[in-house]
Write a structure and sequence with these properties.
CATH architecture of the largest domain: 3-Layer(bba) Sandwich
Distance between the termini: 67 Å
Largest sheet: 7 strands, mixed
CATH topology of the largest domain: FAD/NAD(P)-binding domain
Structural class: alpha/beta
Oligomer: single chain
Helix content: 25-40%
Number of strands: 22
CATH superfamily of the largest domain: FAD/NAD(P)-binding domain
Shape: globular
Strand content: 15-25%
Radius of gyration: 23 Å
Length: 449
């Protein structure tokens, strides 16, 4: 007899979902967490980041209000008040996560867990055993090997907890975390530099979206430095001096390293237990989320499949159903909708144009770029962009992409259509909701030349 049926290391979104559902199926479950229940999304990621994004958007709303007759002035921003309000909300959510685990009958063990065998974990000097072990420890920000960067830069973790509002920030990177934080800082009136080695931000996204995003970021006032890398970061009092590969130097209050995250597997004892890891430290799993050790599983960012909270939750739920619910099932990682909460935001589902061109003999592409109705009076010159990618032979919509207000909200519905296998004819037959930006997805009729 083991102490538990399931031991979960990591009380983030995926680990908590797997724990609760397993307990609901009658399993004896323990969750080990060395920090705060809630994990990356609730404590260090999605939730606090979006709260800051909401706060940063009011400056643009105030500027747009003048075109509608409002006499609005922005006299400054109380940064400590925002951080305090954000922290209070995170405390509330952490309490909810603790209650969810407790109400489900899951034992929460606070400490650092280390795998010591196929069925054993050491925590707080105590060894406990289970029939199954689940690793759900997420990811962690990585700092590139640039002289002085590790000593003088912050990551997304610290960026969420800055005690004072900096007057200037250099964000190093061009992935979704980098561009989101650049948008946040810029929205609070902070001089923001975005430095990245590629020609466009958001590598891996559709090329048209990347181009439109760069235009929108620059249009909002973010200073872009494409084709650049950092060569050194030094301190001058409370300032940071960043040297770029083109010979220029930037004097800023903060440098934020946002060039990627790595699976959080160091020091967990996985390799000694026989668990196979990839080159980046990710846990190699099969479609059932099982590792190379039959009794050990992994879900979420630590597997480096798709690093999105809803994916981790789905993987954790499917694993619980499979192990203890009598309903073995797998999670599809195909056509997963996603959003980037820049200003304006981005929404995507399905293939990029480049991916579709490789996958199919022929594709048809529809695009639309227009001035949002709100901007006609606000005077903002920012354009909304939409794109549909269709496999010509079947008429199925295989990709949809958008940059513009409410893109994430709109893309959730489009994601349902793509998952259901909707054709372009289905989109064309759908009556648009007027006047909205979303209706453009069902009124695009002329293919791009």
């Amino acid at each position: 007899m083991h102490d538990f049926d399931l031991i979960v290391i990591g009380a983030g979104s995926g680990g908590v979902r797997a724990s609760r559902i397993s307990a609901r199926h009658g399993a004896r479950v323990a969750v080990i967490e060395e920090s705060r229940p809630g994990g990356t999304c609730v404590i260090r990621g999605c939730v606090p980041k979006k709260l800051l994004m909401y706060g940063s958007a009011f400056s643009a709303d105030a500027a747009d209000a003048a075109g509608y007759g409002w006499r609005v002035t922005v006299d400054g921003h109380d940064w400590p008040a925002l951080i305090s309000a954000k922290d209070s909300e995170l405390d509330r959510l952490e309490g909810i996560y603790r209650s969810l685990l407790g109400n489900a009958g899951v034992e929460l063990i606070e400490g650092r867990g280390t795998v010591t065998g196929p069925h054993s974990v050491s925590v707080n000097g105590r060894e406990i055993t289970a029939g199954h072990i689940l690793i759900a420890t997420g990811g962690w920000p990585q700092i590139p090997d640039v002289p002085g960067l590790a000593d003088h830069a912050i990551t997304s973790n610290e960026a969420l907890d800055l005690p004072d509002r900096p007057d200037s920030v250099l964000v190093y990177g061009a992935g979704y975390i980098a561009v989101e934080f650049a948008s946040i800082f810029n929205g609070f009136g902070i001089e923001t530099h975005l430095v990245y080695r590629g020609d466009l931000p958001l590598r891996g996204f559709d090329e048209d979206i990347r181009l439109q995003s760069a235009e929108a970021l620059a249009g909002r006032g973010i200073i872009l430095h494409p084709g650049c890398t950092l060569t050194e970061v030094t301190a001058a009092g409370d300032r940071r001096i960043a040297a770029l590969c083109n010979g220029s130097r930037l004097d800023v209050a903060q440098v934020m390293a946002a060039t990627g995250r790595a699976p959080n597997t160091a020091g967990l004892g996985l390799e000694a237990a026989g668990v196979e890891l990839g080159r980046g430290g990710e846990i190699i799993v099969n479609p059932d989320s099982r590792t190379s050790v039959a009794s050990i599983y992994a879900v979420g960012d630590v597997t480096d499949r798709i690093a999105l909270t809803p994916v981790a939750i789905a993987e954790g739920h499917a694993l619980a159903d499979s192990l203890f619910g009598g309903r073995p099932r797998q999670v599809s990682h195909h056509n997963v909708p996603s959003a980037v909460f820049t200003q304006p935001p981005i929404g995507s589902v399905g293939m990029t144009e480049a991916q579709a061109a490789k996958a199919f003999d022929k594709i048809t592409v529809f695009t639309s770029k227009f001035n949002a109705m709100k901007n006609t009076l606000s005077g903002r010159s920012e354009k909304t962009f939409m794109k549909l990618i269709v496999e010509t032979a079947t008429d199925k919509v295989v990709g949809a992409h958008m940059l513009g207000p409410d893109a994430g909200e709109i893309m959730q519905g489009i994601g349902v259509a793509v998952i259901a296998g909707a054709t372009k004819a289905d989109f064309d037959a759908t009556i648009g909701i007027h006047p909205t930006a979303a209706e453009e997805f069902v009124t695009m009729r002329t293919p791009r030349a």
